[in-house]
Amino acid sequence: MFAWNPVLSNQSDPTEFVFRVFTTVPEFQVLLFLLFLLLYLMILCGNTAIIWAVRTHSSLHTPMYFFLSNLSFLEICYTSVVVPVMLSNILGGQKPIPLAGCGAQMFFFVTLGSTDCFLLAVMAYDRYVAISHPLRYTLVMTQKLCAQMVAGALGLAVCLSLQLTALIFTLPFCGHRREINHFLCDVPPVLCLACADISAHQAVLYVVGVLVLTVSFLLICGPYVLIASAILRIRSAEGRRRAFSTCSSHLAVVLLQYSCCALVYLRPQSSSSEDGDRQIALVYTFGTPLLNPLIYTLRNKDVKGSLKKRPSVPKQLLKS
């Protein structure tokens, strides 16, 4: 565990950070505030609806929807770490955030984002078992295993995020107040404000990015290669269509999430652009959490049907 180094903390270190504003034009500030507020409310409502449907309709008490409800919960927490502070700064100007507050936001942002990626890999394995071994599905994907997978994804994300955040905040940051060219305390823009050699820290960030993005993406690709092979062996066209439909929604979320994150965290530092990173961050802050409930409800007859029906009393969370 990395610890705070008092030698690096001197009177030149800032006591707070500020975020760079999107615009100083009052009319645009109001428009941006209303737009982002609307998107945030849609994210909250859409993901809450999925959680409610899964918990209150017995037909959705399966591992697939258990993971989906956990993904929706992560999306709510993920955006709630960022958006309220962002909205406050749009209308209220450059409100300072203390050093501890910036560190806390970074920790939760990285933790929830990493858990999101690991959970997508878990969902790929779930789809593989469901399609390739349908007769053994309920025997393999038990309630205990599903809970362990979610807990493992969260635990690994917490460990990586805690180490990374602690390492970043051992750096000295010169000046009483420093401006972050972003709307959140993400790792790359905070690193840019350090008054020390950050090459080792950038290397650690790259390693963490590879573990979270590349490894989990490969863990997703592996099952989907096997899934594609299993789908091609299905004789009926209707069976192939249904099998592909259950996977296409998940793949759409995966491609959007991983492509945006890879552009920010795995791109060479020499080719990075802070303004470009901020625009990409808007996509995975609002785009993925918003599209997640839309994709899974509009393309899923079970969820749409459950949302239209009156809820039934759940007997168990998962059928084991």
What would you note in describing this structure?
With 320 residues, the chain is mostly helical. It has one domain: Up-down Bundle (Rhopdopsin 7-helix transmembrane proteins), CATH 1.20.1070. Helices cover 71% and strands 3% of the residues. It has ten helices and three strands; from the N terminus they run βααβαααβααααα. It has helices at residues 26-56, 63-92, 99-132, 137-140, 143-168, 187-191, 199-232, 237-265, 274-298, 301-308; strands at 16-19, 97-98, 177-180. A three-stranded mixed sheet has the order 2-1-3. α3 (99-132) packs parallel to α7, α5 packs antiparallel against α7 (199-232) and α7 packs antiparallel against α8 (237-265). The protein is globular and about 65 Å long. The two termini are 38 Å apart. Residues 1-11 and 312-320 have low confidence and may be disordered.
Instruction: Tell me roughly what share of residues is in helical segments.
Output: over 70%
- How many domains in all? 1
Category from helices, strands and their pairing? mainly alpha
Overall geometric form: globular
Number of strands: 3
Average predicted confidence as pLDDT: 81
Instruction: Provide a count of the helices.
Output: 10
Keywords:
disordered C terminus, 71% helix, disordered N terminus, Rhopdopsin 7-helix transmembrane proteins, mainly alpha, 3 strands, 3-stranded mixed beta sheet, 320 residues, globular, 3% strand
